Amino acid sequence: MPTREKVLPELCPVRVERHERGLVSYKRTSLPQRRLIMKCLLPLVLFLATIATAVAKSTHVLVWDERQPRQAEAYDNFLGNEIAQRLKASAANLELRSVALDDPEQGLSDDNLKWADVIIWWGHVRQDKVTDENLKRVMDRLLAGELSLIALHSAHWSRPFMAAMNWRAQEDARNHFAKTLPGKSVTFTTVAPPKPYTVPAHGSMLTPATFASMKNRTTFEATIHLPWCCFPDYRADGKPSTLSVKLPAHPIAAGLPATMIVPQTEMYNEPFHVPAPDEVVFEETWAQGEHFRSGMVWRIGQGKVFYFRPGHEQYPVFKQPEMITILANACRWLGEK
Predict the structure, then answer these.
(1) What is the reported pTM?
(2) Strands ordered across the beta sheet of 219-225
(3) H-helix or E-strand spanning residue 82
(4) What is the mean pLDDT of residues 266-271?
(5) What is the pLDDT of residues 109-121, one digit of tens each?
(6) What is the pLDDT of residues 229-264, one digit of tens each?
(7) What strands lie across the sheet with 118-122, from one edge to the other?
(8) Is residue 66 domain-resident?
(9) Which positions ≥6 away from 120 have C-beta within 8 Å?
(10) Are residues 327 and 233 located together in one domain of the fold?
């Protein structure tokens, strides 16, 4: 009668034999048998991998556009719709909704915002039309990590981007004085830029900036000058720019060359009055010497904001495949929970 054999700790299949009196023996399969087993298992492994890819969670992307008439100079069906269509056609695991300022609830209904993982925002001449209620809904979800924001080009003056930068400026100030004045009580007041939607002159104090004074030995008062969210120079002449990747290992830069030419774009020139970003992914330069940090990331509460500069509604920037690749990469990365 066969006796119980010792089970060898080898990474190979075994054949199990059961006997009348309950004894079990284990025999290693031969090499031809193992090859046959692997040949049979391989299709199953490939099938399971395909199923896993198919059921991978899609990132829900809400494309918001104020839809101004001048977009017709470069886009047949509005800039936001163009971005949504190109992302849908070229990027896997992205689900798209394209909405507009003139839609019911300005496209920012609870249903749309709860559905979205990421919102791509294009605004220009009607930035101030977004309601306080809708701004609060966007900011609440951003801070909670339920939504991330991609602000494109002139959306540096969009209400969600400015609110996010104001929040970050105050958070940075609190963290700074917690380190430099440990154990002290610091009260904060904020000062807005001189006038909304104005351009700072060269030589102006760079914002955000914070100043603190001592009230007594244990108490301090701090004033935060909130970020202007603008820059001193711009030129809408459609001259080309060179977009350079500063962080090639960053997920937003995946699959891109080290440099790219943007054939037609508006020029912005530093300094950009925003809080110091956590990451600068792209830098943009022009033949006349201007430069701009054209792809920046900030953590805002539990969410993230990515500002991507190239654009102007009169130029077909978002018909360029590299620009769509950047947006697709950003959506997938920002949409991770």
Answers:
(1) 0.83
(2) 185-191, 219-225, 209-214
(3) helix 79-90
(4) 98
(5) 999 999 999 999 9
(6) 999 999 999 999 999 999 999 999 999 999 999 999
(7) 94-100, 59-65, 118-122, 148-152, 303-308, 291-300, 279-285, 241-245, 259-262
(8) yes
(9) 61, 62, 63, 64, 80, 83, 150, 152, 327, 331
(10) yes
C-alpha distances (whole Å) from 320 to each of 87, 204, 325 are 12, 36, 9
Q: With contact defined as beta carbons under 8 Å apart, do 120 and 83 qualify? A: yes
Nearest to 200 by CA among 170, 230, 176, 221: 230
Q: How far apart are CA 56 and CA 205, in angstroms?
A: 48
- For residue 128, the enclosing domain spans 59-164+229-334
Give the amino acid at 225: H
- Total structural domains within the chain: 2
Q: Are residue 129 and residue 37 in the same domain, yes or no? A: no
The answer to the question of residue 172 being in a domain is: no
289 within some domain: yes
CA distance 76 to 82: 8
pLDDT in tens, 61-72: 999 999 999 999
